[in-house]
Amino acid sequence: MHPQIRHLYHISQKKSRVIIGLMSGTSMDGLDIALCSVSGTGIDTQLDLLEFETAGFTSDFKEKIRKVFARDTIDFPYLAALNSYIANQHGELVNVFLKKHRLSGESVDIIASHGQTVMHTPGYLLDSKKKLNATLQLGDGDHIAMHTGIITISDFRQKHIAAGGEGAPLAVYGDFLLNRTKGQHTILLNIGGIANFTFIPQSQSFAEVFVTDTGPGNTLMDTWVRTHFNLAYDEDARIASKGKLLDKLLLHLKSHSFFEKSFPKSTGPEVFNLSFIRSCLSKLNESALAHEDILYTLNQFTADTIAEAIIQTTNVTSAVVFMSGGGVHNPLLCSMLADALPGWYMGTTDEAGIPSDAKEAILFAVLANETIAGNPDIFTDNTNIPAVSMGKISFPV
Predict the structure, then answer these.
(1) Is the pLDDT of residue 333 over 90?
(2) Domain 3-170+358-394: assigned CATH number
(3) Cα 365 to chain center, whole Å?
């Protein structure tokens, strides 16, 4: 037996495993690094978050990614080189993280790397008849493993597509294992660049769990602020709070064909981007609209489409909603959501014991734990997607 395979087998048999979860979302604000201790598998999974931080990306690094991010036309050799470049950068950030916390590479069993999404195109965007779902995350696992000396599991979304899914959202698997609360309906709402939620019914049956993207989360708001205010995002909604609702613009935003498609579904900045905003604005017979008013309306657009998706798909009159992602730091958006879901409890995943900023990185640590030690049968549901273990395994040598 190859020594690395023997080592992986030993890790799979341990009572608990130390796993670093890595997540870089479409907002590209930085690499979330979650050092986790994970014991058990399946419904017996227990996770302790030992350390967490977001290692910020330099403006130069972000620009390198934006050259290919959600673009129809790219420099192909550049894309190929970027795959290893991003991986090496992520690997170096992990090494810095370990040194900062006085940890050795030998103390970590697994790295679970989501990678950097640069393209997500569900079948309806490519060929609805053939359902050619596609997604691409850069940051090769072999490079991370070699750079850190730690076994790395990566490229989780491809197996989901190979099994018949769209490759997103994947949060359902970790959400179900870590956030089941008997006697109440629970919704885990993540508002990143794109918004998605997992509905866990009080029955606690995975076959009744529902997960879907709802549409844009922060991506349109961030794009508008970056374009017109030269800021990465609207901190504390200070700019949007000065605006007012543009009803006609909101109607045009909601008229996108994505919202007519049946649930579950997924989407990305390939659909909801600056061009989309401008196309909606071009349909208005008004000029010189205030940027603040447009930003306020984009907030309302995100809140409405999230609430409408939840109400339409869950068939319940109330539930406990735990939010995560960058959207939880937007007080205007959170207020709009509360207004759109009156009587629903609105909180953050911090109340469920999972820091909202760390949630996505944690979920990939859970997925990696299932890959090496779990039983995929726990995820048998009512879709046509078979239960599968996700992620490719890369050895350091």
Answers:
(1) yes
(2) 3.30.420.40
(3) 13
201: closest CA among 220, 224, 183? Answer: 183
Q: What residues have CB less than 8 Å from 236, skipping those under 6 apart?
A: 329, 330, 331
Please write the tens of the pLDDT for every residue from 191-231: 999 999 999 998 888 888 899 999 999 999 999 999 999 99
HSE-CB at 149 with a 13 A cutoff on CA atoms is 7
Class of residue 315 by CB neighbours under 10 A (exposed 0-12, middle 13-18, buried 19+): exposed
Q: Among all chains, which residue has been given the structure tokens 């076959």?
A: 207
The class that CATH gives domain 181-352 is: alpha beta
| Omega within 30 of 0 (cis) for the link into 77 | no
C-alpha 38/C-alpha 44 separation (Å) is 10
Secondary structure of 147-192 in the HEC alphabet?
A: HHCCCEEECCHHHHHHCCCCCCCCHHHHHHHHCCCCCCCEEEEEEC
Concatenated DSSP letters for 324-388? ESGGGG-HHHHHHHHHHSTTSEEEEGGGGTS-TTTHHHHHHHHHHHHHHH--GGGG--SSSPPP-
Predicted confidence at residue 118, as pLDDT, reads: 94
Q: What confidence score (pLDDT) does residue 167 get?
A: 86
* CATH 3.30.420.40 residue spans of the chain: 3-170+358-394, 181-352
Residue 36: beta bridge partners? 19, 49
**Tokens describing residue 8:** 């992986």
Largest Cα–Cα separation, the chain: 71
Tokens of 171: 């949060």
- pLDDT confidence of residue 383: 67
Which tokens is 77 given?
A: 């050799």
CB 320 within 8 A of CB 186: yes
Asked if 24 and 90 touch (Cβ cutoff 8 Å), the reply is: yes
